[in-house]
Description:
Layout: H1 2-46, H2 50-58, H3 63-80, H4 83-89, E1 91-94, E2 101-104, H5 125-133
Antiparallel strand pairs: 1-2
Coiled coil: 3-44
Keywords: Coiled coil
Region (Disordered): 74-141
Amino acid sequence: CKIETLNSEMEAWKQKALSSESKEHQLHDQVRELQQELEKLKIERSSPDSELKARKNVGPISLGAQLAREKRLLTSRGKGSGLASENRDIKAVDYSDGKKASHKNGSKLLSSNRHPFKDIGNFSPLVRQNSRRSVHPLHSP
């Protein structure tokens, strides 16, 4: 009786092993098919006319969207044209101790030669001349 139960359990385990092996083979075949499909898609994507196909499939876009896209392209091209060479030569001014101390820095925000709190409003030259002549009580000799 005990031998019969062990034999039946052994047959059940054999069936499970066979079904697992067949499942494994199916999954391997599926993986192989997906890898082949992926390779085809990579080749299609890297081809130069794939951009044209992608653009044709998108459909027409509005004039505003087209103009906005062109504007972004132009501004990104303009920004990237000579920034690397310009950034090497920019010097920033440090006002932390009240004196002008030049430091090499790539940031254009810090490269301004004016004091950060100076008013740069739209004054006429006459008003600017008069404001320079005015007496400041804290700075008088």
